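Build the 3D complex.
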Amino acid sequence: MEEQSLNKALGPGPDCPSIERLGRYADGLLAPDERRREEAHIVACANCQAELTLLHAFESATIREDEAEAVQWGADQLQRRTSEIFDGRRIPGTLVRRWPSFRRLSPVLAVAIVLLAIGGGYYLTNPAAPALPVEIGSSPESTRALSIALTAPIGDQTTVPGRLQWQPVSGATRYRVRLSEVDRQEVWSSDTADTEVDLPTAVRARIVPGKTLVWQVTAIGASNAPIAESRAERFRLAP
Amino acid sequence: MDALSDEELIARYRLAPGSDRSRPLVEELFGRHQKRVVAWCYRLTGDRTQAVDLAQDVFVKAYASLDTFRADSKFTTWLYIITRNRWRDDLRARRSRPREAPEAAMFDDEPTAINDALAELRANDARALVGRLMDEVLDETEKQVMTLHYGHDMRLDAITAALDLRNTSGAKAYIVSARRKLKTAVTQWKNKV
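Done.
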């Protein structure tokens, strides 16, 4: 009973944004006014903060030592199920199959075959040059994800760092920088068009000896979509 | 192919969705994120076999929905949402199961002061009260552990891994201390009203 009350009190509330919207917030893809509106809610909402923490943890893809063996085993098992995934086969009893059975599909196939025959006949009597494939990947936003190289600070520092620096990414119009504690709690974030950003005095004051902080940079392209992301790097002021 | 971003792989896949020609693109895409999803499913379920089954469901769903991916979020964000939603579906299906013995036993001797107080309040008031008291008496990690466990139905082991907690007993230590503090705060609040 106690748990039910806590479940209700700590679960999502009526004003919480959808997970899709939270995702766009986390990706830095909301318009400035929308972002401010969601930020005002998130600051006061433990449930949304926790959801964002989970999303960041998923994205960081950090696998602990005590999970490594089970994860490798699971990945190997999943690899053996590739054909089932492409056939749309789910685990029995959990969900309906994606595709109808062949028996149910057969009338659809029959219609498709007739249409193909008509279309094929038309093509044979009206030959035309095939359309050229659409060129994809030549835009300036064709940078591979996870490709931003963070320059400094990384590892133990002898003085409090005043600035975060990284390598430029082709096609990036701005960068979103996020500084967090090791439990993914955001300490500070900022958008900049440059490849470095100064840490505000209030943030620098929170960098105390022995305390590890994590930072990550996301490159945003002209279409306002993320095009590259760095690894999450850690640094601390040496104890 | 490994020079292409996730979003570019999907864009190329869309030129011939579901075809043999496009399948290597999806294999590359899913291969990049396979361990991420398996690890997450393992954390959420605490069971390696269930984790593989859940991960399979996630990729089946992702494959079925790939041509609807609108690129209005990162692919990893989209994949996280699928994983989260599939896990919640699975959780609802298993809802009748009792909480694991170690977690239930840990709280057996806890008084029900929190519940007694919350039960007298309307949902929104209870939410506001718990939020305020948590802000007042819990540290950030305790708040996160409480919210993930009660608000997101996450197992304590899963929270330990997700938050990368390195203390000996992980999230259990935080939730025990958080509940103790919260109980005291609720009692004081009740005495005032």
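Confidence is low (pLDDT under 50) at residues 93-105, 122-146 of chain A.
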